[in-house]
Write a structure and sequence with these properties.
This protein is α+β, with helices and mostly antiparallel strands and 201 residues long. It folds into two domains: 31 residues; 147 residues, no CATH class. Helix content is 26%, strand content 32%. It contains two helices and twelve strands; from the N terminus they run H-E-E-E-E-E-E-E-E-E-E-E-E-H. Strands 4, 5, 6, 7, 8, 9 and 10 form a seven-stranded mixed sheet that branches. The protein is globular and about 75 Å long.
Length: 201
């Protein structure tokens, strides 16, 4: 009797282990591959590891802009980001250029209302396309001030790589001052409410 009870317990533990392992495997296999995240301020990561960034001239156009150093060559070509507007037309707002030698150049449209100091990726004009290289066009998603595009290169497409990495291009970074003001304002209101409650008690 005791051995049957032990056997049933062993079967239950084994079944729980197999079930848990199957769930873990299914969850792990559903995760996306490596991700490169870059923005127009020089904040870039490869799965959380910081990417080197600096300003340098892009060799074909000579335009100085934000440059990221990738951990792999990345197939050459351009990714164009378009922002939708109220008129129903899409306006080119960013170009991400891969040179095939591990460099990614980020060109971002300098708005007429922008004032110095400009973001490292802001340029007064976009580089002309390179006729022999592929171009991919994407529509940005997200609210103004916090938009961009997620991109997984097709084989041989711009940025294609042996790591199987996808890209998260952040086109417009929200102003830190707006978020800071909201946090400070909320903190001030909470402090006032706390003070009033303590006075009444």
């Amino acid at each position: 009797m005791k051995s049957i009870k032990s056997m049933n317990q062993l079967v239950k533990v084994s079944a729980a282990f197999v079930f848990t392992s199957a769930i873990a495997l299914a969850t792990a296999s559903g995760q996306p591959g490596p991700v490169i995240t870059v923005d127009e301020l020089g904040n870039g990561t490869f799965n959380g590891t910081v990417l080197p960034s600096f300003q340098s001239p892009e060799p074909n156009s000579g335009i100085v802009t934000l440059t990221y150093r990738l951990p792999f060559p990345g197939a050459p070509g351009d990714v164009q980001l378009f922002e939708p507007n109220a008129a129903g037309t899409n306006q080119l707002s960013d170009i991400i250029r891969f040179d095939g030698n591990g460099n990614l150049w980020f060109f971002s449209e300098r708005e007429p209302t922008d004032v110095p100091p400009f973001d490292p990726a802001d340029v007064s004009q976009f580089p002309p396309p390179i006729a022999s290289l592929p171009v991919v066009s994407l529509i940005e998603t997200g609210p103004e001030g916090n938009n961009g595009a997620f991109y997984t290169p097709a084989p041989g497409g711009p940025g294609d790589n042996s790591a199987g990495a996808s890209y998260n291009f952040i086109s417009d970074v929200p102003e830190p001052s707006a978020g800071l003001l909201a946090i400070l304002g909320s903190g001030f209101v909470l402090a006032l409410n706390w003070r009033r409650q303590n006075k009444n008690n």
